[in-house]
């Protein structure tokens, strides 16, 4: 019984870390937003939502490395993964406009 409780507790911590926050923020992406603001927004969104699984430098942790993800996937493919999840990654961590900003930034990581 004790092992079961520890397993449930550990699983809840992992799920909470991967699914935490971000959706209650206003998106800063409108037609007039410049690239520097998008980069800052993307990096902030990644720090808030991705680094707990993908590592502080996106080197990979419980999730895969994202350091060269732009060499493997297009912006649209990355956005689809962000919105719909893939493997152990849950869907819905970011809204559509946030996912667009992050996907654009990650697509440049080659």
Could you describe the 3D structure shown?
By secondary structure, the chain is mainly α. Helices cover 53% and strands 0% of the residues. It has helices at residues 2-18, 35-49, 51-54, 75-84, 96-107. The longest helix is centred in the N-terminal third of the chain and has 17 residues, at 2-18. It is globular. The termini are far apart.
Topology:
Layout: H1 2-18, H2 35-49, H3 51-54, H4 75-84, H5 96-107
Helix pairs in contact: 2-5, 4-5
Calculate Rg over CA atoms. 15 Å
Low-confidence stretches: 20-30
Strand content: under 5%
The protein's oligomeric status is: single chain
Count, helices: 5
* Biggest beta-sheet profile: none
**H/E element sequence:** HHHHH
Q: Briefly note the structural class of the backbone.
A: mainly alpha
**Taking all residues together, what is the mean pLDDT?**
81
User: What is the helix content?
Assistant: 40-55%
End-to-end Cα distance, whole Å, is 47 Å
Beta strands, count: 0
> How would the global form be characterised?
globular
Structure, briefly:
The protein is mostly helical and 110 residues long. The chain has helices at residues 2-18, 35-49, 51-54, 75-84, 96-107. Helix 2 (35-49) packs across helix 5 and helix 4 (75-84) crosses helix 5.
């Amino acid at each position: 019984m004790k092992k079961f409780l520890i397993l449930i507790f550990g699983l809840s911590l992992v799920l909470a870390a991967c699914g935490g926050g971000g959706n209650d923020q206003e998106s800063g992406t409108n037609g007039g937003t410049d690239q520097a603001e998008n980069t800052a927004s993307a990096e902030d969104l990644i720090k808030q939502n991705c680094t707990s699984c993908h590592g502080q430098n996106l080197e990979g942790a419980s999730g895969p490395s994202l350091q060269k993800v732009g060499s493997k996937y297009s912006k649209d493919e990355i956005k689809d993964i962000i919105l719909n999840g893939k493997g152990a990654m849950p869907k819905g961590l970011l809204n559509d406009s946030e996912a667009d900003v992050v996907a654009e930034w990650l697509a440049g990581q080659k």
